[in-house]
Amino acid sequence: MEYSTSLALLAPEILVSVSGLVLLLVAAWSGDKSARFISIAAAVVLGGAFALVAPSVCTGAAGPDTVAFGGQFRADAFAGLAKLMIFAASGAALVVAPRFFGRAGAMRAEFPILVLFAALGMSIMVSAADLITLYIGLELNSLSAYVLAAILRDDERSAEAGLKYFVLGGLASGILLFGMSLTYGFAGTTNFGGIAIAVADGLSTGQLFGLTFVLAGLAFKISAAPFHMWTPDVYEGAPTPVTMFFASAPKVAAIALLARVSLEAFGSQSLAWQQIVIFAALLSIVIGALGAIGQQNVKRLLAYSSINNVGFILIGLATGTLAGASAMMVYLAIYVVMTIGSFVAVLLMRDGNGDQVESISDLAGLSTTRPALAWCLMALMFSLAGIPPLFGFWGKFVVFQAAVEADLIALAAIGIAASVIGAFYYIKIVKVMFFDEAVNTVTGKSDTPHWVLLAICALLISPLGYLLIGPLGNLADMAAASLAVAF
Questions:
Q1: Predicted pLDDT at 455
Q2: Which EC number(s) does UniProt give (predicted)?
């Protein structure tokens, strides 16, 4: 394939990278006074990248025509659908961030640039068809994320979150790199297609160890148990727009990458990695559900909710089937909307001084003082719990359906039982808002962009969201079908 064709397939990544470099120069020359302009420009760039990716998703791009640079990169429908979620979530973070940081006088010009480079890394991750490409994309995303977590340099919690994320993230990257080295040593190649050929007749002990370490490293990136320990502290300590970003876009990228590695590189040996994925799924569901019950901080609660939801998404991957991969993408799309909506609601929780309110007890009686916010937050909590007729129910339904069709009935049954347990902490927030005596803590002024974003998310997860079942299901089916794997 000619370089011109390869470069055309990388058009979204080229747009984001060149724009990021140009905006970096603008920030260096103009300083923080240009932060607002850079945020708007970065959002426009992400919108442009979204538009460039959309055709590959709508047409179900697959096959040799989607491969670039000698098999290093794949611009297929699966990667495209993941990129649409990544760019949308990144754009949402850019919309809410200026007002959050502006109140504290801490809006920095480099924030939107870091988001752009993180989105670039995630875009490379989901299109990776080689272990080297995988690692480049993952590290580009991670290095940007470490700085984002600690961007409030005068805030001890933010600095602590950034340090914890950096130390544990470095450990996970080392584990992943070691697994990649083992895989290369025993397979003789770093290309996913070459690895698939090397393991077609069975996994050697070295290849099995390599697979295990690679999955362990990626499990950290999606905060799947037992590699979840960083999540509550980082989510609580990082600025709320950054937490919203961490809980949405990187999750999509890492889960899509995990699916590509499992189904493309090791698809013929699904029995080897299915056990690991099933163990991580069950442990994440249980730890996420039980860990959230005693939380008093809403951001920590949402962190455990994220761990819990990752477990449900991994059930789709554990099936190793086309239907399971499609269900996983459907769940991811719904999860991103619910997560963005939940954190936007948290951003609207401010006291009279404009300071962030994060304690669940401060939400007491919110239905009488801020009814619109309370009702939107209630819908989001019920949707996260998977309670019909809200759209979050459909995400769980398609995942459990795929598990049953793959004869993983016990896994589906445990997941359903655990989802009932997990509903407790979502309902607890609703109970505090609607049945406790009002404390009149959340009295701060609201911002129009936040309300617009919250209204969009609330509408999408409402019963009106079921109108999207057909289009979303078709896109997910085409995305799953584009994976080069024999199901």
A1: 92
A2: 7.1.1.-
